[in-house]
From TrEMBL:
Macro domain ranges (all copies): 1-170
Cross-referenced PANTHER family: GANGLIOSIDE INDUCED DIFFERENTIATION ASSOCIATED PROTEIN 2-RELATED (PTHR11106), MACRO DOMAIN-CONTAINING PROTEIN (PTHR11106:SF27)
Domain of life where this protein originates: Bacteria
Species: Micromonospora echinaurantiaca
Coiled-coil blocks: none
Protein name: O-acetyl-ADP-ribose deacetylase (Regulator of RNase III), contains Macro domain
Amino acid sequence: MRVVLVEGDITAQQVDVIVNAANSSLLGGGGVDGAIHRRGGPAILAECRALRASRYGRGLPTGQAVATTAGDLPARWVVHTVGPVWSATEDRSALLRDCYAKSLRIADELGARTMAFPLVSAGVYGWPVEDAVGHALTVLRAATPANVTEARLVLFGPDTYRVAQRVHAG
């Protein structure tokens, strides 16, 4: 699988799967989650509400992932994953890596060929960007999916993109 760094807006990526850095409610929020729900339209929220009413009554657990329609996004599906909030006193990196691994597994099971990931937990959840990029690349570089041939790590803003390029090259 090819891993590509892209600076830009994840909601504009033309791929089979867009990964959403969701909050556990699955009902939208700020940052990437809010942008995906706004651009994707009401179909995404409707499926998320159905998931809450059935399998995830208490919300989607941290490190887990689930797929819905992509609504009006230029993709077939959205895979929602809940990243951990960064902690200086507790190592939550395994949960962060699970977000990438489980999202990739779901996309692969759906038959997706291409997917776009945000930098999970690096926004309002406070994960240091350099470390977040390192965890994302560790999982994506080691993956051997049956169907997915390209994983894009979509980075918002030139500063985040430069950090990711440095980590990717190092």
